[in-house]
């Protein structure tokens, strides 16, 4: 059973609970949707996010990982599949040019119920419009929010979203670790039920969010790095721990939005900006936001000295704690409940790869110091002890083999299931 105590943060009193059960104790875009509406009109709408992929800037060829997408496209359609949290009869789409340095023209877009291998279910494709028009020019740094459209989709249903880019368009805003196949095709294929692809990727391109008009309660956002983004899970299987948490929360009419970015860090930028820098865009802009779970910090500890960040110095515990305290202060200032997660074990991580020095005992000592602060200081409104959930009982510095994806860093499908099942929903929502 979870333990419980009372803590007051910024004048607000919350239950603080360790929200795991088992072997131990226990976009800025969204605000624009409502701008200009009269109070009566706003009351008629209950838009909430039902799926999200956090935008990232591309990087150069000098970085350890390829981007997995072309530098630019012209006269091509990109089709992407998403599995939403909560369903409804009206949806709208959000595309992002967050890291573009020039206007981006969307020449056409569509959405339908997803079939197999990039196809849409017959008769379900709907044209996406922006202010009643098929096309839109998206300024640098801006989102494009579609008009509402009628399309009934069930909870956990899958949508096929197509975007046609007629001009020479640099692919500057993407989401690297989509864990879902996406397809490129020649010409305008937005109305094609079958999709004749010319190339595939498992990254996301420009697609940022799906909103649903629903009387449901609201959304929880999870923010983190590759463990939250789903690295180590099966591609196209939707077995990330936020996906599995979404299934648990659906009967409570609450969506889960995945704000994970592989390579994300608490204090530094690279594969996306640092967490505090993106909270307003990815988290606080969400309507009817119920709570936030943050699992971040292992890359801050482990990247310095590796091929990811050869010239960076490892942060101190005090520097990382100050970073967490800023997240807490930002959440408190926005009246948002913030749940902190301990950092899972990672001994042996990435052995046999060019990043074989990702782990060492000094790095692990820093992880233990951070986890002790998260558990004992009561700074978060609640905690979830993923370290306790995932570690090998016989060798606590390592991830349990039953939960390991094989790289000793990322949980596999069963590890993600254990993480999702470990969360006490009452403690998450402050009930």
TrEMBL record:
List the molecular function annotations (GO) for this entry: hydrolase activity, acting on ester bonds
**Which InterPro entries does the UniProt entry name for this protein?**
GDSL (IPR001087), GDSL_Rv0518-like (IPR053140), SGNH_hydro_sf (IPR036514)
Q: Which Pfam families match?
A: Lipase_GDSL
Q: Which UniProt keywords apply?
A: Hydrolase
Q: Which domain of life is it from?
A: Bacteria
Question: What is the recorded name of this protein?
Answer: SGNH/GDSL hydrolase family protein
Q: Which organism is it from?
A: Aurantimonas aggregata
What lineage does UniProt assign to this protein's organism? Bacteria, Pseudomonadati, Pseudomonadota, Alphaproteobacteria, Hyphomicrobiales
């Amino acid at each position: 059973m979870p333990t419980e105590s009372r803590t007051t943060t910024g004048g607000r009193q919350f239950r603080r609970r360790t929200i795991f059960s088992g072997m131990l104790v226990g976009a800025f875009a969204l605000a624009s949707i409502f701008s200009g509406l009269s109070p009566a009109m706003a009351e008629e709408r209950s838009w909430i996010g039902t799926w999200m992929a956090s935008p990232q800037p591309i990087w150069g060829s000098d970085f350890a990982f390829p981007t997995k997408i072309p530098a630019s496209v012209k006269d091509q359609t990109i089709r992407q599949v998403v599995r939403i949290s909560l369903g409804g009869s009206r949806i709208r789409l959000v595309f992002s040019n967050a890291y573009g340095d020039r206007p981006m023209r969307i020449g056409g877009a569509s959405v339908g119920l997803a079939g197999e291998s990039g196809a849409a279910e017959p008769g379900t494709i709907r044209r996406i419009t922006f202010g009643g028009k098929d096309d839109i020019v998206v300024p640098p740094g801006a989102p494009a929010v579609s008009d509402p459209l009628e399309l009934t989709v069930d909870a956990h249903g899958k949508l096929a979203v197509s975007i046609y880019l007629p001009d020479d368009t640099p692919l500057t805003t993407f989401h690297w670790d989509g864990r879902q196949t996406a397809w490129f095709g020649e010409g305008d294929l937005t109305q094609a039920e079958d999709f004749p692809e010319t190339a595939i990727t498992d990254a996301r391109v420009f697609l940022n969010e799906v909103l649903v008009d629903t009387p449901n309660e609201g959304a929880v956002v999870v923010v983190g790095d590759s463990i939250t983004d789903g690295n180590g899970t099966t591609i196209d299987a939707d077995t990330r721990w936020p996906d599995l948490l979404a299934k648990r929360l659906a009967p409570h009419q609450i969506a889960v939005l995945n704000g994970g970015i592989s390579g994300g860090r608490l204090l530094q930028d690279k594969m996306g900006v640092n967490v505090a820098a993106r909270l307003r865009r990815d988290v606080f802009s969400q309507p009817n936001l119920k709570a936030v779970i943050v699992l971040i910090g292992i890359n801050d500890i482990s990247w310095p000295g590796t091929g990811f960040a050869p010239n960076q110095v490892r942060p101190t515990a005090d520097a990382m704690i100050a970073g967490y305290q800023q997240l807490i202060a930002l959440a408190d200032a926005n009246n948002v409940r913030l749940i902190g997660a301990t950092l899972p074990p990672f001994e042996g991580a990435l052995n046999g790869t060019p990043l074989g020095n990702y782990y060492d005992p000094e790095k692990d000592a820093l992880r233990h110091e951070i986890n002790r602060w998260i558990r004992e200081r009561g700074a978060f409104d609640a905690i979830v002890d993923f370290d306790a959930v995932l570690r090998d009982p016989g060798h606590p510095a390592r991830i349990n083999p039953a939960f390991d994806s094989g790289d000793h860093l990322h949980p596999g499908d069963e590890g993600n299931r254990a993480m999702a099942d470990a969360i006490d929903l009452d403690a998450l929502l402050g009930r």
